Batch of 3 targets.
Target 1
Amino acid sequence: MTLTAHAVVGAAVITLLPAHPVLGISLAFCSHFLVDAIPHWDYPISSRSVNPSFGEKMRMDRALFLDAARIGCDGLLGFTLALLFFHSLGPAWLITAGAAAAMLPDPLQFVYAHFKHEPLVSLQCFHLWMHTKKELKKQPALGVASQLLFIFIVVSLRLLAIH
Ligand SMILES: [Zn+2]
């Protein structure tokens, strides 16, 4: 899923256990794989040096710039929404940590693409194994709408659960 969706889930999870940040961070990290198991849409990765399926040498081209802009905006939106929705449930550092931990498996795929060593190899295998095979590839509108709905449900459930 998008980094935004992962960030919101991670922040929701960590605010359930504000007294146990290490456990919260671990659960937020694990949430990434469960969320990826849900059939969803992912925006395409243009650069072959960013896409873990290729892992080619870094090339400063248009595709890399586009990916950096798209992924950067996605991550930033994730942090922003997580803080916006859950600021009343915990300190900003805790929410930021939960969001970051939940997004982390995706940047780790990029690291894996250029550094194929353990534990990244096993983590990548697990990531791919957990990831849904039902991708909404050619339906970006449905893909975006379904992730907005998913975020809405997660935020609603978390805010309804309160403390
Ligand atoms: Zn993922």
Note: The helical segments are 3-14, 21-36, 62-86, 92-103, 105-114, 120-130, 140-161.
Target 2
Amino acid sequence: MIHDSKERYGGISRIFHWGMALLIGWQLLKFFDRIADGEHWVGQTLVPWHVSIGSLLLLLVVLRIIWAARQRNDRPPQNPATARLVAIGHFLLYAGMVLMPVTGVMTMLGNGYGWTPFGVQLAARGDGIPWMASLGSLHSPIAWLLLIMIVGHVCIALAHHFVKKDGVLRRMV
Ligand code: HEM
Ligand code: HEM
């Protein structure tokens, strides 16, 4: 039940998948800062958690990768015709989940803003580090790419469920 099997993803993989999907969805609300400079309900109540939730996601993605590596040989099999594409797609989603928090932290440290997730000061405000700020500026373009990949991933999952009706969505719920 806790571990994955050939029939379905186990409890821990499903908690990682849906818990992180929720938190990443929350993080993407940061795009709403583009509307009226964030002077609205979303911008004032959900978006101020951005650095804290993003830092939590950094920890979670490390744990998820370790867990996925241990479950590698016991996961539900893919259709051989598309297995390679699926592997590339899932790899890119993992790359996005790693690069987003890493470039976020680089934005904070590179610009000398400090880093204080959940009120715990991990780095104080100070001088910026220019090379880190440069890499951190990739945060926004990668966020757009991740958003596109997530939309594609969700469409494929729904197509499996409603069009192909092959039970691929059910093994993750
Ligand atoms: C999975 C994790 C994360 C996601 C999905 C995410 C997503 C986003 C998005 C969508 C934006 C708006 C970009 C735009 O309007 O062009 C943004 C901006 C920002 N994020 Fe994140 N973020 C994550 C993690 C973090 C972390 C961990 C930090 C800091 C420790 C951080 C700091 C920032 C900052 C300072 C901005 C505003 C500056 C900028 O646009 O580059 N983010 N993020
Ligand atoms: C932030 C949003 C999401 C991300 C980053 C994400 C990422 C992933 C990743 C990396 C996998 C591979 C399994 C793993 O290692 O955990 C996966 C599997 C899966 N995801 Fe998502 N996911 C997201 C949202 C969703 C949503 C909203 C749905 C449903 C509509 C969905 C449906 C599925 C299904 C059905 C699988 C299993 C596919 C298979 O067995 O081959 N995902 N997801």
Note: DSSP finds six helices and no strands in the chain.
Target 3
Amino acid sequence: MKAEKVAVVTGTSTGIGYETSLMLARNGFLTYATMRNLNKSENINLIATKEKLPIHVKQLDVTNDASVKNAVQAILSETGRIDVLVNNAGYVLSGAFEDLTMDEIKAQYETNVFGLIRTTQAVLPTMRQQRSGIVVNISSAAGRFGYPSGSAYVSTKFAVEGLSESMSYELEPFGIKVVVVEPGVIRTNIFNSVVVAKKSQDPNSPYSQIMQKMATGFEDMLKNTSSSADLVAKVVLSAVTNENSNLRYLAGKDVETWLDGKRNMSDEEFYKMMKQNLMR
Ligand SMILES: NC(=O)c1ccc[n+]([C@@H]2O[C@H](COP(=O)([O-])OP(=O)(O)OC[C@H]3O[C@@H](n4cnc5c(N)ncnc54)[C@H](OP(=O)(O)O)[C@@H]3O)[C@@H](O)[C@H]2O)c1
């Protein structure tokens, strides 16, 4: 690993982005850990100082054009290159489809989809000029199948999958790779910061029972079959250090089982299995 490889990670205040930044820096990448709120940078800065890691923290809100542009410009003025971009920032909007307002859905897309597009478009001209680079998009098992209460979040991750797959053809001739990482249930702050659609919070919502069942289902999965964020970080590291990286990587002990089911079952069988597992 050459020390001068530069990695940029979005959404690094907690969870997968935080662990991925540490993992990349510990493995020789000059790592720009970006976050929208610099007040949350204390922990990563402490570890970087303690372990003498090549980590720099920069402000970057993926929903804000100027913030993305300024961060990328600042990084380029310090390094002159970007070798790896990890599009990780995201959150979960949960709610029955009929209960979702357009504003709630637009905000979800603004972060999970348009944020990823905005950041990637800001970095690509540099990678194209370098004729090298890897864009890692953190999707989800929810990028491969839907579940009740997840229509907004799931559809953002399906969008990430489609974008990534299409981009990969265009970027390959310029030496740029696209990698999609699909975590299962990972123990992070994401479950504490779920935005529940306002109407779905109402006990009189026609969907309140389904919402309750899903909340219990996720609690069970978190307790019994979840993985830690550093497992995802290891998957990202192995993808970006592999000369022949794949388009898709699964990350998490649960996700292999689900995707085996998706591969081997008919849609109807998969639907039945999901209903039995999620909506007991
Ligand atoms: N945990 C899971 O089970 C799981 C499974 C599959 C996929 N994922 C995906 O993994 C990614 C990371 O999630 P996580 O589990 O690590 O959750 P997390 O601990 O909640 O981290 C999410 C990160 O995204 C940041 N973020 C949110 N909106 C942002 C914005 N507008 N601009 C910049 N940063 C923003 C958050 O910053 P703040 O601290 O400022 O809010 C935080 O740093 C997400 O894309 C998520 O969809 C997670």
Note: The beta strands are 6-9, 30-35, 55-59, 84-87, 93-94, 133-138, 176-183, 195-196, 248-251.
